[in-house]
Write a structure and sequence with these properties.
- The radius of gyration is 28 Å and the shape is globular.
- Strands 1-2-5-6-8-10-11 form a 7-stranded parallel beta barrel. Strands 3-4 form a two-stranded antiparallel ribbon.
- The protein folds into 2 domains: about 300 residues, no CATH class; about 180 residues, Aldolase class I (TIM Barrel).
- With about 550 residues, the protein is α/β, with parallel strands linked by helices.
- It is built from 21 helices and 12 strands.
Length: about 550
Amino acid sequence: MKRILWVIIIVAVLTSVWIAAHRWALEKSNFQVELVYDFPALQGLSGSTGMEMENLLRDLRRAGIRSLGIQATSLGEWFLAQKPLSREFIIQLGEEKDLKTYLDFPLAFEKSDLDLIRDAGFEPVPKISPAPWDVEPIWLDYNPRLIVASGSGEIKTGFLKTGVRLGLAEFSKLNLDQKNLNLVRVHGISAPELRLLSDQRIINRYLRAAKERNIRVLYLRPFESAWPRSLQLIETLKTALEAAGFSVGRAAPFPVWSVPPPATSLVWAGIWAGTALFGIHWFPRCKQIILVAAVCAWLGSLLIGLFYFSLSQQALALLAAVVFPSLALQINKGRTPLKRYLWISLVSLLGAFLVAGTLTGTEYLVKLEEFRGVKLMHLAPVLLAFLAVVRPLRRWLNESVPIKYLALAGAAGLLGLLYLRRTGNFGGLVLEGEIVVREFLEKVLGARPRTKEFLIGHPALYFLVREKDGKKSWWLPLAAVGQLSLVNSFTHIYTPLKLSLLRTAYGLFFGYLIGWAVRRCYLRGKRWFKGDRGFGLLRVRQPR
């Protein structure tokens, strides 16, 4: 029976590989990056330095910039300019004292700015965001080819003409009234951040956005009172992009990407087959019940997918991301430590492909939709590995526990909280030294292996496969960190598949190497301490 379940998994993975090949072709054909410069920042620079706007625009054209971003004047700026508001507008919002709540919301675009941009030979790129009122889109008369949307809330896109691209600012949380749009992703660095970052750090950040997150529009701003430095940054960025295989030009949206329903049903069958295998491992006496439940669950997920497809995608991807790293650590195949190391990692990789084969659609490539349950997938496999070590629970709970072990458990809990905080886009604090190491690895390897993989999880897996009975080893929860991180890399559909595969290979290679080196140092140190015949300061008590 287990053999049949593995056959189903292999068929599902082969289907996922076919899906991945189609996605690879889409990603490979989209390597053009568009540069957009912030017009309001140019106005501020002109006002603070006295440089003529005409000269600034001429320099930008020589640098290869063709698009200028323009945003609506906010209500607060409207007040500062002492411009009157219509009585109808005030009545629409309520009493005048309530206007304080809306000072940062966009109010209107300046026609004179749009005229200046067009007359200077640039394309205007309007920046829109949700507002409690309708902002008049006077920029429609200027036939923009790109519009940038940012902020949070619901935004209307029904006014967009055919062929107009909508740029989604990264980390925005927008609800669009339609999804069948020409979408591109936008990354920018705010003015406060520019003051703190070095030129190389800025270039690295823009380059990383294009390479790792399918960003195809980079939004640029000038440095304060440093125009030559701003122009040099543009040239350096263009050179870096071209060296990385990109070309500077008009950003193209990803074409519509969808997967036939039969292929999706096969992928989901593989996920439920893996879940059944894991359930049989934990409850071998309930084999028949688990198999029937898995079949019913597969049919149920197909039925739910007919009405709530995105919900089914998210649920099945989360299930695979939890089950397959946990299932991998129960694999006992291979005669040598290296072969066992590779077999365990291979099973996790199978789960990674099933996740990638589940989260399909253009909306995932542009992060309009994304994988949910990041915290749960980082916690559940570790807890399952911990439970596998301490079984049977009843006998373990009745044993007396020394204080030192309770202290160690407390420390492990604190490290676990830190580990969870560092997951996701807005995790815990990252040290400056860690950033330097990350950027060095990106530069040397082209794809940075994940820290939790090659420094923690995979070295722990090396120690685990060296154990005689690894299923009861305390290395198991730490090894689970590396396996779940391996799968997690493939939940980021907006990251090119080639980069995820390269990152995984580097993590496995360096993780095994570091595990081998640490173990060798440990064995040598152990012999050295044992042979200490001096004052005994370095002697470690050895069991007789």
